[in-house]
Structure prediction request, 418 residues.
Amino acid sequence: MPKNDIFDGESGDESRLATQPTPVPVSTADPPDLPPKVPPAAAEDAGASLDEVAEEHLDVIADRESDIPIAAPASHPLCQYSMTGMSSQLEAELREQEFVLGKFAIHGQWTTIFGAPGTGKTLVVMHELLDAVSSGLVDPANVFYINADDSQHGLTEKLKLVEPDGLHMVAPGYRDFRVQRFLSDLHSVCEKGQASSTVIVLDTLKKFTDLMDKRTAAAFGIAVREFISRGGTLIALAHVNKHRGADGKPIYAGTSDIVDDADCAFVLDVIHEDQGVRTVGFECKKSRGKVIREAAYQYSIAEDVSYAELVKSVKPVAADDARDLRSATAAANCPDQALIQALTEYIARGYTGKTKLAELAARKTGVSRRQAMRVLDMYTGIDPDLHHWHVKHGERGVKLYALSTPPGTETDTDDLEI
Prediction:
C-alpha cells in the first residue's frame, strides 16, 4: 500500500479510504519581477536605510498595480437618474426669461393669481395673453386655456374671442377632456419633449386639486414641477378667502402648499370703482425672477357689452395713479373702516381687553374712546358674515376679544358671547 493511503482505523472499510494530497514544494525564491529581498544588515551594508528600501518596494508595487485593470464597481441605484452629460440638451431647450403675461408671469415658471370672484382675474389674463400672442412673445398653437369654471354662454364667448388667433380653448365635457386626467396628460407632454413650448392656463385651480388638503395640493405641486422643470409654463387662477386679513388685504385660499410650490404668486384686489370703470391691483406674494412687485389695471364694468369689448377695455395703470386711487378709496369707505382695521390689528397683536382696545384704536384713528367702544360692540358676535371678532370668557369671567374664526376651522360656540 502506498504510504500516502490511510484506512479508517476502526472499520477497515476500504470504501472509506482517504487519499492524502501530495505536498506541493514551496519555493523560497523571490518572484522574478520583484526586486530582491534585502535583509536589514545587508541594507545597512549597502549604504541604504530601511526607509529607502521600503519606499523602493512600494514604488515597484505601485507601478505594477497601475497596470492592472480595476473592475468597475456595481452600479449605484441612483445612477439611472443621473443627468450628467445632459447639459447640452438642457441648454438647447433653455429659453431666456421672457414674460408671457404683462410683467408678472415668466416663461418656464408656475404663476398663481389669487383673487375674489368678479375682480377680473380671467379678464386681465385673457387680455395680456392675447397681447403676448399679437406681439410674438407666445406661439398661439402652443397655448392651452383650460376653462373649467364657466357656463356654456361664457365658454362660447371666450372661444369666439381666441379662435381667430389660434389659441386652444379646452373645457371639461368637450372632446373627452377630463380634469381628473390632467396630470396624466401633463406627464405625456413632458415625455414627448413638448413642455418647453407649452403655455397652460388653469381657470380655476380648485377644479384640478383640493386646495384645502395638504397632501393633495402637495401631490399636485410635484406633478406640475416636472412640467416646469422641462421648461413648461403654467398660469393658475385661484380664489381668496371670504375674510380679509388684519391688514384689510385679501388672503389666498387653501393651504400654503400652492404658494410654496409655485414660482410666483400674486393677489388681485379691487382698488377703486368710479363711473363704470374698475381699477384692480396685483400684489406679489412670492417671486422667482424679475417680476414686478405691484401692477394695476383698469377695465370697463358697463352692462350690456360683449366679453370681447370688456377684454379690449383692459389697460395698465401707472403706479402713481394707482396709489392715488387707493387713497381715494380709503377715504370714501365707511367711517368705521379705519376703526375696524385698527381694532383688528390690535386684537391680532394680542390685546384682548375692551378698555385697552378702545383706548389704542381711538388714539390711532383720532376719534373718541366712546366711538371706539361703539364700533367694538357693533362688530362683536359669532356670525362671520356680520362680525369681525367675538368675546370669550376667561378666568373669573373676564371678557377676552378674539378675531372671528377663519373659514374651514371649527369653533366651540358654547363659551362665546354674542
In short: The first strand starts at residue 5 and ends at 6. Confidence is low (pLDDT under 50) at residues 1-19, 37-46, 406-418. DSSP finds 13 helices and 16 strands in the chain.
